[in-house]
Every structure is written in structure tokens, then in C-alpha cells.
Design a protein that fits this description.
Chain lengths: 461, 461
């Protein structure tokens, strides 16, 4: 006999067994339903692209993490490491065809060969939304609103901390630290991770003790949205288009009654260079210590590497894996082993067709229904007279109830012994039989739950 | 200014723009809904695996097509080229945890660096279902039934041509050609592609003129399921477990009233070595010339490379890309540019919050609603008194109607000028306004269509 290859996956990669995959699919379906309800439309791009496209002129950290290789045609190719770069390429390529402004979502896997410490994976799923081709505050606000409401659809209240990169830069200009802006923003971005004292030390290295003190005064500003905006406006030299943008966003929050979800937080800067307007991060009210589960911001020139026309936009990205882990930590329900609401008990070989025909009656009504496949015993036919044909059959039936319970199936149906007979329905949770039922009875008993379960989250109640 | 990188994708790879991606997602949602309704549960596995796992001892054609490289840790890795091999590895690894019998579905991308002629892509999507851990005819039939009904859910009538590998082998044994079985099956598998005369020539090379003639007699057998089964049984030496399996499947077809969808076809052999029981291919009644859109069969030992315990099963795979292309060729509707049912006209900057608040009323009722973002003009506020504020506003409004029409949005809503005023609804198709409406009126007018559109295909009507 040939030797056995040990079944295993690569470090940093994961299999998803049914309970986890059902939970993930449920998250994705709710997120997708929310995105669609705002008019975002899906796109898809290849997992594999020219390395030149994905890396641009860059390199650095990305270069170190990317899965890059030569294909059989000797092309220099790589797996995408985010959805932003392929979107930039996509917009440069199809801008005319798509028409602007354009709202897209993209939920897909990306790959990074990074260090696998701290629950980080080398294959993970991002859920991105962007509006490109609009510089309006309305677009900024819509991204904030869709994020807030997407988390609401997941049963989560969030606090979205936002800031304006441009206003921060105005402040830095005022204190004479404008040319160190990129380094300063990156340092401030680490505040939550490294603490205030370390941030002060690093800022002092960049811009001196006095500059560090003034920057910390700016980013430590706390209070209501209005209070913080007032202070930020003053510290940055008075009213400006940037402070005006934050002011109008505040009015939109009031108009939509969503103000409670937003915190104006000058410490939010986002490390990435391309943001130029609002930036934000999102924390779960149930456990902010998990860190940001969604972030994004406004950029001036998305597709600059691939096109001479600048395309501005605003977007957000949810890290699905971090979110799923957070929900698990919070003990939020979600995992179930099966979609099945009703199982038809297995019968003898000659009955399998009729049992499938019975199951079809439920499937046609939107009730997921499986026919159990008995494997443990011989001739174990289970039928509906409450009793069973023999001791062996009784055991076969008990095995099937156990199988249903393990799969989280709430009901098992035992068909009639003779055509035209009545049905018996086993309530697995209550460990009780309901006898003498018609098909219509069973549809009514199990149908309510099934309708709820199979409905998309954005359907009417 | 830095030079521009030409935006492009790799040969054999594709971007999906919103209309195509919406059509694909709709297909996947319907297929997934059908799979779930039978009790199949989803799993996921990594795109990247150890090359050893994916290639086994093999090589040959697969080796030539696979995307294989060394990762940064010098591991020999590859992108999956199908979903069957990862599933075999998965079953070997988690069999105990999953419990058998086990029904799974997996819809995901796979990669093959093959020749890109004839509409073949290097990145494509497979939709697989399998039942493992059951040798029963009931499991065979369920796979046949789920495939028939999945296509029905897509609005397609199919003919599923099936055969039994074991019965074919019995026949080959009887004519003394058993040891050439693999070559013969592969040759017969090409019949539709290369024609009868070329098949006869190739078979004669393998097993002589007389053998070729007898094999062609066997595979050319036509008639009703019962007639063909009778002839096959005779030619293979009389009743056997294999002919019995085909007989019981026939009774299941009768029990479920699905006989019209199935053709017993001794010319179906499937090239792949691992099939041992039933094998089948699926043709669209609207255009069989497209070729098989779904195929599969029963195997005795799925996970043999990774485990000493044999696990038998039966499964099927739909090639999503071929199916999508077939639907397009057949002119089946499916592509639409947006999910949005209702668009709220753009207003001036100060109105954007209130217009989002209005849109939320529809989203909360499951009606996908977007707020248009005007970019073409200045101050273009559109409101509901049927007229507009100025000529500029009138133009802005027309631009928005055109935008809605391009996106396939049937309705545009113009909010009241003053709080408490009535709403005006533009029917984009009819090019007419309906004035003096309340919120409830608009919900009723646009809600019916929205409900239908956002409902999962397997929900109750």
C-alpha cells in the first residue's frame, strides 16, 4: 500500500468547518444585504495579478508580505494583499464604462505572508465599500452611515471615531511641523498601542519637546462633538473648509438621529499615506478593547498609479476575520451546524424515493429539509404510527434522533406506514412526538421558523 | 510626474463589472439556496496548500497546469486546481468531528494555468456538492435530484445522462477487455468530441476490431430507461448489483415524478479514474450543444491519499463560468446594473442629511434605496412640488433621471420642499411623475417590486 500524505494546511491558513462557515456566511450575507440596501454594487477582480500592478513603485512592508512568483509563462505575478489596490486599477481601467460617482462593494479573500502571531492569518477576508467620483460631504456621511447601520444589522452598537486629516495638517502647519506630517501622523496612529509616554518621546524626537506637547494637547482634546470641533478649529487657526466639513457632517448626524454613534477624535490619523480628508475607526461598544473592526477615510487620488486623471473617493473596510473572532469572544450566537429545519427519517431502501418526494413538499415551500441516511443498522425503517416495526427499527430511530440533535435539526418527520396514513413529528428539543398530523399540519408547525431562518436579513419582516 | 502603469489583468483572468457580478451572485445565491434546502452545509478551505497535498503522487496534466511556487518560508505550495482534492484532504482530517454520512457544498474559485482557447479561464468558480459516508442508492439519487432541481431553480430544464461504471466494467470483463478498462473508458468519454468513427479507430487499437464493434454496440444502445437497462443487463451477463442499483434509481425517479429528466446513457463514462459507481453529465434542454454543465459520480475511496480508511461518496460539480456563459448565449435575463429600487434625488449640500433620513425609511423596510450624488451642476436641488426651483435645478433633475435610467433604477423620489410637504415619485420607465404622495403611498408603490427582488429564491412566495 502506498504511503499516506499527512493531511494538513499551511501555517497561517485555516479550514472552515460547517458551523464556522455557516456563521461566516451569515455575517457576509448581512453585510452584503446592508451594502446593497444603500445602492452599492458588487465587483470582482482576479486573485492573481501582475506584481507590478499590485506593488506599484512601492515595496517595503508590502513587498515583504506579498505572495509573489513567476508563472509558467515567466510573468511576475502576485496574490492580491488587499482590495484597495485592485480597485484602483479597476477604476483606472473602467471609469468611463462605470460612470461616476460609483458605489461599489467587494467582499473577497486577500493574502499576506505576514507573521502569524496574535490571531493573524495569511489568508483573510475583507469587506470593502467605496464611493468614488464624489468630493461631497454627502458621500463622506454615507460611508459613515452605512458602516454604523451595517453593524446594527449584525446586532452590534458601535462608536465610530472620526477625524479630518486636513484639519490635523492645518494644525501642524500652524505649529511649524507641516513637513514632518507623515511621520507625525504615523506616530500618533500608534498612540493606543504604545501609550502616551512613548508617543510623547517619539514625537519629541521628530519635532522637539514643545511640538510634542502641543500635538498631545491637540490629540487629547475630549468632549462632545461640538466641543471638540470648537477646540480643534481654534488650535488649527480658525474656521476652514476642513472644520466646515466636520460641521456639516455633524448636521447630517443630527438629521438622521445618529449622533450617538459618532465621536470626533483628533487622535485618529490612520497610518496610510493616501488619506487626505476624513479618517475613522470603529469600536464595538460591547468591547472596545478588541480594537478597530472597521476603518477608512477619504482619499484624493485613488488610481494615480494607473491613470493621469485623479479620482477621489471615500471608503471603508471591515476585516471579517477580526469581526468573527470578536463576535465569538462576545459570545454572540451565530454558529449552527446546519440550515436544516426538518429531517425526514430514513426508511428501508425501497422507501427512499417516497421519502424524497415527501421532503420535496417542504423544500418547495422554502423549508430546508433533509432525508436522513441511516448507516448504523440494517433495514431500519421508521414510520409514523408512533411505534416502530421491531426492536432494530426502534434503535435505528433513536440513532436518527441523536443524529438530528447533533446537527441542530429541531424536527424529525416519520412518514406514514401505508400511503394515505398520518405523519408523526418528533420535537427533538422537547423529546416528544406529535402524532396523527397531516402534511399541512407539519408545514404550519415547522414553517414559521423556517421562513425566518431562510429569509435574507434585509427582507421585510 | 511619475510614469503610469498600464492597468490590465493577466491573460486568462477576468474582472467582473457590476452587471456581470450581480448576475453571477444571483446564480450563486440560487444554487446555494437549492443546496441548503437539501441539508448540504458549506465548508471552506485555503486557496493555497502544500503542493504535495494537491498533487499527491500524481503529476501529468495537473502538474502542467497548476500554479506552484516556493513561499517565503521555502515551502512548496500551490493554488488549488479543483475542490475535490482539498475536500478529500478535509475529510481525512476531520472525519471524526464531522460525523458520517456528511453532506457538504463548496462554492469557490480554483486556478489552472491551462490553455486559454475556447472561452476557458485560468481562474474559475466551481460549485460542488458531495455526500460522503453512504454507499446507498438513496445518496446516489439525492445527488441526481439536487442537480435536477438546482437547474430548475435557475429556470433551466436539463437532461441528466447517467451510467454505471461498474456495469460498464462487467460488460468489458465479459468481452475480455477488463484490463484495458481505464483506456477504454477514457476513449469512450471523448465520443461526443471526436465522433464515432474516430472512437472506433481508437478502440480498435486498444482492443481489436471486434472488441471495438461490441463496445460501440453497448454504448450506442438507445431507448427508454427501462429498455436501455434491459439491454445493458443482458450485454453485461445478466442481473447484478450494478444493474440492480440502476433499477432502484429508476423506481426513485418514478416515486418523485422526475423520470423525464433522466436518460440512461451507456456512452457516459467520465474520464476520471476515481469513479466506481454511477457517473453522469448534464445537458441543457434549451441547447445541449453547449456540452455538459454539471457532472459527477460515485467514488469508493475519496481520501485514500491521506488516510487508511476508505471513505466512499457521490458528488457533483457545476462549472459556474460555463453555466453563466450558456445563460448569456441563451439570452436568459440576469444582468442588471444595480439592486436599487428607489433613488432619492440629490439636493443641496444642506439637505443631504434629511435625504439620507428619508432613504433610511425605505431601507428599514427592505427596499434598497440610494441617495443620488449630483456632480454635474451647482446647487441642483430637486424637490417635490412637481416644478423645480430654477432652470439649473431642472437640468440637474434631468441628469439624475438619466443617471437612474442608466443604473436600471425604476423610481426616483423627490422630497418635499418644506418639512411636512408631499412627495413626488418619478416613474423612470413611463417618464411620468406621481405627485402629492405620502411616505406610505411610496412604500406601497415601490415596495412590492422590492420585496420580490430582495427575496432569496428559496423563500416562500
Amino acid at each position: 500500500m502506498a504511503s499516506i500524505i499527512e493531511p494538513r494546511v499551511l501555517k497561517g491558513f485555516r479550514d472552515f468547518l460547517p458551523p464556522q462557515e455557516i456563521a461566516r456566511r451569515s455575517l457576509i450575507e448581512k453585510i452584503e444585504g446592508s451594502f446593497r440596501s444603500y445602492g452599492f454594487v458588487p465587483i470582482d477582480t482576479p486573485a492573481l495579478e501582475y506584481a507590478e500592478i499590485l506593488l506599484g513603485k512601492g515595496g517595503g512592508d508590502t513587498e515583504k508580505q506579498i505572495y509573489r512568483f513567476k508563472d509558467k509563462g515567466d510573468r511576475d505575478v502576485a496574490l492580491r494583499f488587499d482590495l484597495t489596490v485592485p480597485f484602483a486599477r479597476f477604476i483606472a481601467q473602467y471609469k468611463q464604462e462605470l460612470g461616476l460617482p460609483f458605489r461599489r462593494y467587494h467582499i473577497a479573500k486577500v493574502w499576506r505572508g505576514e507573521n502569524t502571531q496574535r490571531g493573524r492569518y495569511r489568508e483573510f477576508t475583507q469587506c470593502d465599500v467605496d464611493i468614488v467620483g464624489s468630493e461631497s460631504a454627502a458621500a463622506d456621511f454615507e460611508i459613515l452611515l452605512v458602516m454604523r447601520n451595517t453593524f446594527k444589522a449584525l446586532g452590534l452598537e458601535v462608536s465610530i471615531h472620526l477625524n479630518h486629516r486636513g484639519l490635523f495638517n492645518k494644525f501642524l502647519t500652524r505649529i511649524g511641523a507641516a513637513e514632518k506630517s507623515v511621520e507625525i501622523l504615523r506616530t500618533v496612529d500608534k498612540l493606543a498601542k504604545i501609550g502616551e509616554e512613548e508617543t510623547r518621546r517619539l514625537l519629541a524626537e521628530i519635532t522637539g519637546e514643545d511640538g510634542a506637547a502641543r500635538i498631545l494637547q491637540f490629540i487629547n482634546c475630549r468632549g462632545t462633538y461640538g466641543e471638540v470641533l470648537k477646540t480643534m478649529t481654534e488650535l488649527s487657526g480658525g474656521p476652514s473648509p476642513e472644520s466646515g466639513r466636520l460641521e456639516i457632517l455633524r448636521s447630517y448626524m443630527a438629521d438622521t438621529g445618529t449622533g450617538d454613534s459618532f465621536v470626533l477624535d483628533p487622535a485618529i490619523t490612520r497610518g496610510l499615506d493616501y488619506y487626505t480628508g476624513i479618517v475613522y475607526e470603529t469600536f464595538l461598544n460591547d468591547d472596545p478593547s478588541i480594537g478597530s473592526v472597521c476603518s477608512g477615510g477619504r482619499y484624493d487620488n485613488l488610481a494615480g498609479l494607473y491613470s493621469k486623471d485623479p479620482v477621489s473617493g471615500v471608503g471603508a473596510s471591515i476585516g471579517l476575520d477580526r469581526l468573527a473572532a470578536a463576535l465569538e469572544d462576545l459570545g454572540k450566537p451565530g454558529e449552527r451546524p446546519s440550515y436544516t429545519v426538518l429531517a425526514v427519517a430514513a426508511g428501508g431502501e425501497e422507501e427512499a424515493g417516497r421519502r424524497q418526494a415527501l421532503a420535496e413538499q417542504f423544500r418547495a415551500r422554502g423549508i430546508p429539509c433533509e432525508v436522513l441516511l441511516e448507516t448504523g443498522g440494517r433495514g431500519g425503517g421508521a414510520s409514523a404510527d408512533g411505534k416502530t416495526d421491531s426492536k432494530a427499527d426502534g434503535k435505528a430511530l433513536v440513532r436518527q434522533f441523536i443524529q438530528a440533535e447533533k446537527k441542530g435539526i429541531p424536527w424529525v418527520l416519520m412518514p406514514p406506514q401505508a400511503p394515505g396514513g398520518t405523519l408523526t413529528l418528533r420535537d427533538i428539543g422537547a423529546r416528544q412526538n406529535r402524532e396523527g398530523l397531516s402534511l399541512q399540519d407539519v408545514i404550519e408547525i415547522v414553517g414559521g421558523g423556517a421562513k425566518g431562518q431562510m429569509r435574507r436579513p434585509y427582507d421585510l419582516p
